[in-house]
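Why does residue order matter? Because the sequence determines the fold. Keep that principle in mind as you read this record.
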Amino acid sequence: MTLVDSDPTPDVISATPSGPKRARRAAAPAAVKHRQIQPLPRWARPQKTERDAAAFVAGAGLAFFDQILRGGACGADVSSAAQDPAEPVYAGCLRQRLALRAAESCATLCRLREDAGALRDAEHLAGGSETSPAGRIHRLFRLLAGRPARFEAATLAAALSLLGLSASLDVGSGAKALQSCVADAPDPLAVAARASAVAMKLCAAGSALDAEIFALWIADLALANRLDWSRPVPLLAVAILHPSLRRGLNGKRPRPSDEDWLDAVAVAYGLAVAEAHALAADLARRTEKLTTVAPSLRARGAGRVVDMVLADDGVTPAAAAARVGMSDRAARRLFDRLVALGAVRELTGRETFRIYGL
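Structure:
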């Protein structure tokens, strides 16, 4: 893997680019007041002893999370980072951070060694070059988080290619089969369970583990489609390895081919959406801080860099410099300034090859 990073030479933070101050400040998004997200009520949180109520808990959690995803409609978010103006401005970061967690869970499922930090490095420092099997799983869930919530043949083909399952399924007939199987499903959880079970069968000719990961991926796509979300949110894979889902004397984890898969899907979504809700609340607080300090940034293109932070799990100074057209030194200086203001975090803990995010 070829690492891509800017010059690690320390720089002076206080330097200010030349030019009219008013024009530079206009590039940054205005400070906005975000809607405060309340914690999930206790009755909507997963309870270890109430497996029979799993569908109710998952439904309640999804209803609260749906309100968060539609929280941008009140006009509070004005940055261009939001792909859908009806969503909060940090929705891109939320989806991509959950994609990282889903990839880490699936890497564990495949007994791969990469943790979240290694997956983040592989994605953001490799410059888009070929990556490891775990890195391809990460790209699979990043793909899910970035595409519309529809059974499009091109998206399915890209997902199958990342998993090495292209020869196992004709994407055209597969898309039709998936659309057909969920058409009369009574509720969103049933949609996710049916679609993932069918996806598992359609990919039976390939690797069982890869087919299972594809099934988890399809479940989130189907759920988002039924809930009319603009883009899927990686959820099911985030929770699929939770200990409370294991059953029997051998502690078997649930699989899409199980007869009681729908029950497992309900429990898993209840767990996953509680985690996603807590993450959204944290990102909302961090976003408010970032958008509060953004108007005071003087660097040219600072507003677009802020948008990059809000739209992804992590951003390198090199990527920001390339996107905005500033120098690597100016990009590093901007991120140092944002860290000093408490508006972003450095995510790696390293002195070089740094990655920044909410």
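The first strand starts at residue 345 and ends at 346.
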